[in-house]
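Quality-control log, excerpt.
Job 1 of 2 completed; input and output follow.
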Amino acid sequence: MKLDEEFIEEITELVENILDERKDITTEDVFQEIKNKWNEERVQKTESMLNSYKGLKDFVNTVNFTDKEYEKMEIQQIKEIMKNNFTENESFLERVYRSKVNTEILVNFLTTIFDDYIDEKMDSRVIADIRKAQMLKEMYMEGIKPSEVKLGYSSPKTFYKDKEELIDELAPKLLGVYGIKFSEKEL
């Protein structure tokens, strides 16, 4: 419920800012501008998460501590996230632990979403769904270069269409309400 209120406040503020800046535009123009900005940010954020996944996962696998250290830091980090309390007196090692734990929490979240998406699409009988699942796994999770993944496609147009659809389908799963795409019908 609170998220809805924040969402409405954010949109209202955005509309007011646009109307304040430009007196010569209509409400419909404002909504079109918001929709375009929203959809652009949605794609950028989703693509950024996809492109960062492999590096984040490699970082998590590089920094190692014992199970006891990790469990202690994870509990502390979850408490910190909940309280949103960060101190300036933390040592360098605590920052590394915090970064590792934050990164691992994010990677686990992303891995769960990606694995669920892949399972869902691989069970599908639709060839495009299977291609998108393979693209996610190969290009983003395994870090295979897009040029190499593109070789498996009959045409570059199909590759880019699958990539766009993959981002559109993953955005709401990764960004929640902020990942929803506004269509042309919605004004």
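Job 2 of 2 completed; input and output follow.
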Amino acid sequence: MRYLLVMAIQVLLFDQLQLWGVCHPYIYVLCLLMLPITLPHSVDMLIGAAVGLVMDVFCNSIGIHMASCILVMFIRPYLIGAIVNDKDRLNEQITLHALGMEALLKYVVIMVLIHHFTVFMLAAWSWNYIGFVLIETFVSGIITMLLILGYNILKFK
């Protein structure tokens, strides 16, 4: 239910928000990042495709979000395996409490930057705009990461 709320907030609020012309926070990626780690990889990919498709429909973005979400969900189990030690793998959820701040921060930073870079690069569709794409990725990524980490901190207070 909370993932539907996050998607609604993304569509109704954050898609309308553009700060400084380069900040486009995509908090809906929280829905993908916080999925249980026990899901099969194929289910991860299907969920990523569905979330991306919903965002594409509401953003009128012709597959950009779907491609980005599928890429993030493809990379996710490998990144989790690299960041999380075996003892922590017993926890089903990816949360601040389960992983600790350092591991969660690494995970969120890498995944958000991959997602945002893919979205903005596909939207630009040219290497001529790489400088602008990197600025958009950095600024939007920082705001998105702060919102996701804030959510995790508030969730366990």
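Post-run check on job 2. Residues 2-17+29-155 form one domain.
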